[in-house]
From TrEMBL:
<dbReference type="GO" id="GO:0008137">
    <property type="term" value="F:NADH dehydrogenase (ubiquinone) activity"/>
</dbReference>
<comment type="function">
    <text>Core subunit of the mitochondrial membrane respiratory chain NADH dehydrogenase (Complex I) which catalyzes electron transfer from NADH through the respiratory chain, using ubiquinone as an electron acceptor. Parts of the peripheral arm of the enzyme, where the electrons from NADH are accepted by flavin mononucleotide (FMN) and then passed along a chain of iron-sulfur clusters by electron tunnelling to the final acceptor ubiquinone. Contains one iron-sulfur cluster.</text>
</comment>
<protein>
    <recommendedName>
        <fullName>NADH dehydrogenase [ubiquinone] flavoprotein 2, mitochondrial</fullName>
    </recommendedName>
</protein>
<keyword id="KW-0479">Metal-binding</keyword>
<comment type="similarity">
    <text>Belongs to the complex I 24 kDa subunit family.</text>
</comment>
<keyword id="KW-0411">Iron-sulfur</keyword>
<dbReference type="InterPro" id="IPR002023">
    <property type="entry name" value="NuoE-like"/>
</dbReference>
<keyword id="KW-0001">2Fe-2S</keyword>
<dbReference type="GO" id="GO:0005739">
    <property type="term" value="C:mitochondrion"/>
</dbReference>
<dbReference type="InterPro" id="IPR036249">
    <property type="entry name" value="Thioredoxin-like_sf"/>
</dbReference>
<dbReference type="GO" id="GO:0046872">
    <property type="term" value="F:metal ion binding"/>
</dbReference>
<dbReference type="InterPro" id="IPR042128">
    <property type="entry name" value="NuoE_dom"/>
</dbReference>
<dbReference type="GO" id="GO:0051537">
    <property type="term" value="F:2 iron, 2 sulfur cluster binding"/>
</dbReference>
<dbReference type="GO" id="GO:0003954">
    <property type="term" value="F:NADH dehydrogenase activity"/>
</dbReference>
<dbReference type="GO" id="GO:0006120">
    <property type="term" value="P:mitochondrial electron transport, NADH to ubiquinone"/>
</dbReference>
<keyword id="KW-0408">Iron</keyword>
<feature type="region of interest" description="Disordered">
    <location>
        <begin position="161"/>
        <end position="194"/>
    </location>
</feature>
Amino acid sequence: MPLLWIVQAQLDRAHATIKADNPRGAMAFPKSQGGGGWVPLAAMHKIAERLGCSHMDVYEVATFFTMYNREKRGRFHIMLCATTPCMVCGAYDIMHTIEKHLGIKAGETTADGEFTLTEVECLGACVNAPMVQVNDMFFENLTTESTVQLLDNLKAGNPVKIGPQNGLTNSEGPMGRTSLIEPPLGPQCRDLGA
Ligand code: FES
């Protein structure tokens, strides 16, 4: 899995660098991690050779996980989460907005090679649903309006806000932070000092 990911990151160089207008987001994602690249068959064969395993062993892993792209993606690879929490918060409204705005369906790339849209399973940002990952960046708490604005800014090369798009920070719900706001009570599960 790490070798497949390294290949994908190496083949991510053609993809767009997303400019963050919030320093925290920029710090969290200093450079490409591989979300927009892809893994060609030749690379899978090389990995099998390196590991001393069969081609099929590598194919099985590369085809099981959607995190590995087996075809070239657009400069901006939009991975839209449509798992239950995102779905009930409007993921398909976001998907239809993207499809309409870009003139493609999920699974397709725009004719100019700028955008690919892929439906994926949970990306772990459920509390800030609905959300998309673009290359290596998360964009959360999306509305149809903020989605269109995001697409236009990405295409224009304008800085974009990474993370929640509704003014919240981190993984807060719509009411802001309501739990885990006091210092943790002891005893801790282990004494780190010791
Ligand atoms: S359900 Fe969408 S991020 Fe978890």
